[in-house]
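Below is a filled-in request sheet from our internal design queue. Each sheet records the structural input a requester submitted and the sequence that came back. We keep these sheets so that new team members can see what a complete request looks like end to end.

REQUESTER: design group, bay 2
PRIORITY: normal
MODE: inverse folding
CHAIN LENGTH: 290
BACKBONE (tokenized):
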């Protein structure tokens, strides 16, 4: 867990001026309260690209005014949801993903954003893209609230995906901490894909993998004895299986980069899939948390 004395103690929320999302603000406010952290709402106004030497000052003033109104509305929503929670706002200039990443590096232990439900190519290539570059490059966990968490059966459970990569073990550590804070159960899911050339019994291989996982998880279960842990070793595709597990979960936690995926973006293909398929918030954790 980050040391508050370093100054990186905030829960940082990226605000979209086109849609002040109550589920995003509620998730972030609850998390800030659980962690006794201040909440900061940030909105960034992108640069206006002028190719014909036209004075863009009036347009920028309009965008900034819209941004100020969105921040006021978001702050009022948070105060209504969580009276007494420290909340501040800030309006900055620049590409939202880059600004959020920079501000997170200086101040935040966690960044929370909403999903505009862009298609995968739009999210990767759009000038307004926030989720993919932020999730790929922020040096602290990033929460994407595409769907609200499922709270019908409190205290609920968190799901964490495990694949043996360094970032997946960082995700496990974060997931245990989060489950402990919430008093929630934790379901760890390792999706086993049978090798093209394989010998022996699948059931024996799955049982052995479950045994090894149990040994590996013993460190965290000793550290968080109050967290009820279940281990699942499943057949299938990781995105499909984790999306299924997310159907009634509080959140699904995954490492930033698995054993494959989009190397240039430093974001695993499983994360890309879950950002579009999960039925609850998705928390992406880098290999080394901030």
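RETURNED SEQUENCE:
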């Amino acid at each position: 867990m980050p040391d508050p004395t370093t100054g990186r103690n905030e829960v940082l929320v990226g605000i979209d001026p086109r849609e002040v999302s109550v589920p995003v603000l509620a998730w972030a406010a609850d998390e800030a309260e659980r962690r006794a952290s201040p909440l900061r709402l940030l909105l960034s106004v992108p640069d206006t690209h002028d190719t014909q030497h036209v004075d863009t000052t009036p347009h920028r003033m309009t965008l900034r005014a819209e941004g100020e109104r969105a921040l006021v509305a978001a702050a009022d929503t948070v105060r209504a949801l969580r009276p007494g929670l420290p909340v501040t706002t800030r309006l900055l200039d620049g590409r939202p993903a880059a600004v959020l990443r920079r501000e997170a590096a200086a101040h935040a232990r966690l960044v929370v954003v909403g999903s505009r439900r862009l298609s995968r190519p739009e999210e990767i290539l759009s000038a307004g893209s926030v989720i993919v570059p932020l999730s790929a490059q922020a040096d602290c966990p990033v929460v994407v609230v595409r769907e609200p968490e499922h709270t019908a059966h409190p205290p609920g459970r968190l799901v964490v995906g495990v694949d043996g990569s360094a970032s997946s073990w960082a995700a496990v550590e974060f997931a245990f901490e989060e489950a402990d804070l919430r008093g929630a159960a934790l379901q760890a899911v390792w999706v086993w894909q049978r090798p093209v050339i394989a010998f022996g019994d699948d059931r024996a291989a799955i049982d052995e993998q479950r045994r090894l996982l149990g040994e590996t998880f013993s460190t965290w279960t000793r550290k968080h004895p109050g967290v009820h842990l279940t281990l699942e070793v499943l057949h299938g595709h990781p995105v499909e299986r984790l999306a299924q597990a997310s159907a009634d979960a509080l959140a699904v936690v995954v490492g930033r980069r698995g054993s494959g995926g989009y190397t240039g973006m430093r974001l695993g293909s499983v994360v890309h899939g879950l950002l579009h398929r999960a039925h609850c918030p998705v928390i992406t954790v880098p290999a080394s948390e901030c």
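SHEET NOTES:
- Confidence is low (pLDDT under 50) at residues 1-5, 120-127, 259-265.
- The two ends are 8 Å apart (CA to CA).
FILED BY: M.R.
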